[in-house]
Specification:
The structure is a single chain. It is built from eight helices and eleven strands. It is of the alpha/beta class. It has a single domain, classed as Vaccinia Virus protein VP39 (Rossmann fold, 3-Layer(aba) Sandwich), CATH 3.40.50. The strands form three sheets. Strands 5-4-3-6-7-8-9 form a seven-stranded mixed beta sheet. Strand 8 and strand 9 form a beta hairpin. Bound molecules: S-adenosylmethionine.
Length: 290
């Protein structure tokens, strides 16, 4: 049974309570359209539009909508472009099979290799704070499950992402490739590689926006350097287990000097992240904290 069949079977079991025959789900039936917005007014309209345009399963679409409503109420999604991006990414494609029934829960989930897919509220708030405009170049440090970059690829057509754990980077690349083959053409915007993201992706830069999804006690100088003047980094900064998610702006003052300003997107609340680890040769050894 492939992933697509497994998703359909698991929703059939959840709905009927038994392993009933499940309908074959179509691949994405309509080409990706940057101007197309799913309905944001009712659950029924959203599900109907997504089935017609994206060929997704009503079982997961219902959960997707219910989580969306909570994100909006919580002010994690503030603008229509981010609402659209959240509504278009099938989170169930990025979690482990054993966590399918939890794909739309608030919490982060294990994705293997000792790391996690961040919870939907955190992804929504961090990405909304990044304020990505169409055409901007965005770098993500910490590909993990691939969900964050999938979301970014619904905001801009230029996304780069780096993952340090080699087998995870390979697994997530094959998730993207599988989804692209099924018609999720927006994910062709994502370039990925396995490396230590502390050093950024110099050949691809400079970037308009950078998002970091692992925690560190300082802002990596190579990332600030690869950020365009006027650009933004959203990054968890602090000691292990006690990070503050900062929005960092790189600006040029009237005298030409470069200034960096920081604001806390959670007004001081602590949000723990997995560590920003370090590569020595091809081994992960410790982290990049000072
Ligand atoms: C919270 S997890 C993944 C979140 C991810 N954005 C997602 O949507 O699933 C953070 C990721 O950062 C990765 N990571 C940690 N240190 C790294 C480094 N130096 N370079 C690149 N990735 C790193 C971890 O291996 C992990 O996959």
């Amino acid at each position: 049974m492939n992933r697509r069949e497994f998703l359909a079977a698991s929703s059939a079991v959840a709905l009927a309570g038994v392993a009933a025959p499940f309908p074959a789900l179509a691949d994405v039936p309509k080409p990706y359209d940057w101007n197309a917005y799913p309905p944001m007014n009712t659950r029924e309209n959203y599900i109907a539009w997504m089935v017609e345009n994206r060929g997704e399963d009503p079982y997961y679409l219902g959960q997707h909508w219910d989580r969306y409503v909570v994100l909006v109420a919580n002010r994690d999604l503030l603008d229509d472009r981010n609402k659209r991006a959240f509504l278009l990414v099938p989170r169930e494609e990025f979690v482990l099979e054993r966590n399918l029934s939890r794909a739309y829960e608030h919490a982060f989930l294990d994705i293997g290799y000792g790391v996690t897919i961040s919870g939907p509220h955190l992804v929504g708030r961090m990405t909304t704070s990044l304020d990505v405009q169409f055409g901007e170049k965005v770098l993500e440090i910490g590909t993990g499950s691939g969900y964050q970059s999938a979301y970014l690829s619904n905001l801009t057509d230029k996304v780069w992402t780096i993952e340090i754990i080699a087998p995870l980077a390979a697994r997530t690349r094959s998730v993207y490739d599988g989804l692209i083959a099924r018609g999720y053409n927006e994910y062709t915007a994502i370039s990925s590689k396995q490396a230590d993201g502390y050093y950024g992706w110099e050949e691809a830069g400079p970037f308009d926006k950078i998002i970091v999804t692992c925690g560190i006690d300082h802002i990596p100088p190579p990332l600030l350097q690869q950020l365009r003047v006027g650009g933004t980094i959203v990054i968890p900064v602090g000691p292990p287990g006690a990070h503050h998610v900062l929005k960092v702006l790189k600006e040029q003052a009237a005298d030409g000097s470069i200034r960096v300003s920081r604001t806390d997107i959670y007004d001081g609340r602590i949000v723990p992240f997995v560590p920003f680890t370090k590569l020595e040769g091809d081994q992960i050894v410790g982290d990049h904290n000072n």
